[in-house]
User: Which sequence fits this backbone?
């Protein structure tokens, strides 16, 4: 069932409209510098994230694993991530923990010198769900060992679970479970498309995590993804549609989180300009998933071509804001549309 679901998710994202109705990065604007007073060919995109040295602050956020085609996708992504010196996360590793024959669909990343590898387990799996046992520190450590992870993402995907026929909907106890694992391992919390509120950030601040992948509203909606999996007549089909655009916009969560956590800004990042906007707002890195998926189903070279274009866009944004390095970009002037300002002001 897990293999089939993971295959469904990739096919649905590739072949259907699953994005949020609005990409909130369109409401974030960098101010043009007509006199940048730097040379474009001297721009330095290097950055440090979770003690890893990256050639540019970009992470291929968790996409897949746990079914045969996932191995090919992760191989292509890992080869490109290694060549470009960027970070990479794998999809939820529950399938690999429960079915050892599927470990290779994740562990393929170990064949490449990726400077930052992020493992992945779901917060719902850290507490008992019906007859399913809760994962603990030993399971988390095994997941990290599976991919030689530098850090483990614990993903918070309760919107998806609520819209999924086989979803795990018990959430009481997640904070304590995250705290326990974070006391032993290097952990980040990761949302998957619905963002994080101020109250969530307050709660997570006491868990010992080392950072966040904010996964905000604006990119792929996993409520939408699940809509395509639910048969007609099932009430969950309507739930998936109703909550298609549910969540906190990525730039809003980033505004709240950037001065408190080392943050990966995932959720609607389409190109190097969006990445530059996120970095100017204080993100430690931008994160991309759906924007690289189609290329990853083709070849490593296709992923590399996408990353080359993204890097060129990032460098151009840095040049046109007079930012010779990432530290300078984080001081670039940013203008936010009124709706983002309204959201942010209401949530502070």
Assistant:
């Amino acid at each position: 069932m897990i293999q089939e679901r993971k295959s469904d998710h990739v096919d649905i994202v590739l072949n259907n409209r699953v994005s949020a109705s609005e990409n909130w990065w369109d409401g974030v604007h960098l101010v043009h510098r007509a006199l940048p007073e730097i040379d474009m060919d001297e721009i330095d995109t290097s950055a440090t994230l979770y003690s890893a040295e990256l050639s540019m602050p970009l992470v291929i956020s968790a996409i897949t694993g746990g079914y045969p085609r996932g191995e090919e996708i992760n191989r292509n992504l890992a080869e490109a991530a290694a060549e470009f010196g960027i970070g990479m996360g794998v999809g939820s590793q529950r399938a690999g923990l429960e079915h050892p024959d599927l470990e290779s669909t994740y562990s393929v990343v170990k064949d490449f010198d990726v400077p930052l590898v992020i493992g992945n387990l779901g917060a719902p799996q850290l507490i008992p769900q019906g007859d399913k046992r809760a994962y603990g520190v030993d399971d988390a450590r095994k997941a990290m060992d599976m991919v030689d992870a530098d850090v483990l993402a614990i993903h918070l995907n309760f919107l998806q679970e609520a819209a999924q026929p086989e979803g795990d909907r018990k959430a009481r106890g997640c904070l304590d479970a995250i705290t326990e694992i974070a006391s032993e391992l290097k952990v980040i919390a990761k949302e998957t498309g619905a963002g994080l509120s101020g109250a969530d950030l307050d709660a997570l601040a006491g868990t010992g995590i080392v950072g966040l992948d904010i996964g905000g509203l604006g990119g792929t909606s996993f409520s939408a993804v699940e809509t395509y999996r639910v048969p007609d007549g099932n009430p969950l089909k309507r739930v998936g549609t109703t909550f298609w655009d549910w969540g906190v916009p990525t730039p809003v969560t980033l505004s709240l989180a950037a001065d408190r956590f080392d943050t990966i800004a995932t959720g609607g990042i389409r190109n190097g300009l969006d990445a530059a906007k996120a970095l100017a707002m204080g993100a430690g890195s931008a994160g991309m998933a759906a924007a690289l998926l189609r290329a990853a189903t083709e070849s490593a070279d296709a992923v590399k071509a996408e990353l080359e274009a993204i890097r060129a866009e990032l460098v151009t944004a840095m040049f046109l804001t007079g930012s010779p390095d990432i530290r300078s970009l984080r001081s670039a002037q940013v203008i936010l549309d009124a709706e983002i300002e309204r959201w942010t002001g209401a949530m502070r």
Summary: The chain has one domain: 2-347. The chain has 16 helices and twelve strands. The chain has a mean pLDDT of 97. The first strand starts at residue 28 and ends at 30.
